[in-house]
Amino acid sequence: MSDAATSPDPTSPDPTSPDPTSPDSTTSRPGPSGSTAPTARTTWALRVVAVAGPVVVAWVCLTAWGAVVHGHPLYAVLLALTVVGCGLGLWCSTRPRAARSRRRRVAGVALVVVATGWVAAMAWLRPFTAVEPALTAMTSDADVTVTESATRIVLEPVGDAGGTAVFFQPGAKVEARAYAAVLRPLAEAGHTVVVAKQPVGIAFLATGAFDAARDAYPGPERWVVGGHSLGGVVASSEADDADSEVVAPVVGLLLYASYPAGDVSTTLTAQVESISATQDGLSTPAKIDAARADLPAGTGYTVIDGAVHAFFADYGPQPGDGTPTITHDDARRQISQASVRFVDGLDASA
Description:
disordered N terminus
């Protein structure tokens, strides 16, 4: 038998070689750089992030459902977009593709980085959920009417309200309902109280909420703006901006474990009450003392001995906080009493 009869035809395809037109071969075909490893790693990284996204959303919903439902709607919308985006990303990552150009590979890496940051942000923004007795304080009774909308909670005294109302900015990522119990005594004393629901729980994103509250409630002749922690930082700026207005000016600034971001000692004409805690691990006594120079000389200071940062609302323990030496109920009572005394004093001096 001749060699021609036994040797394979060099022009015929090798049956052991993969068909380059087959969809299965596109993921292993080298691109212009001659290597498919970066593309494969990017694809798998995208799949991991796409799976992690819904897991994070499920964790948030299981552990903070009340805050998601009763908070500003933006966070709930972002959670829904996370699920949709991750589902779309996972579907796209399983579709067969031709070899990518270098530019498309770079874009793929950037997409993974952005998606990872997005999912991490959704996890970090998980709110602190209100707990008792704040939830019970959200109930209307013969003395106080409680109403709730997508952007605010309002506690109004039944009957005639006093001339001074209170607008309050929550601390970072703390659900607005968590302040119902500590602020309710103000409403029982005759003052309308408006608590902002901040987009994704960040006070800097709710800087227009005070003006919106004044428009919605034109009755009060004067306002006190207050805030807890980061909310107090924004409240300080709001007070400094609105203390000289002719109609419904800000006459008081109420700080819960907080201080201004800059020096308002010579520009702020509203009276100030600073309420802090000796065991606060976040707005520490040292930080409160260091900020005294940034507040007007007549600022009043009330220090709750043994209280911590999380005792200014009802949302459970907070990472980084100190160890309390008094009960939460005792601390809440003292904070409420100091708040009512301050606002009542403004009414008396008007």
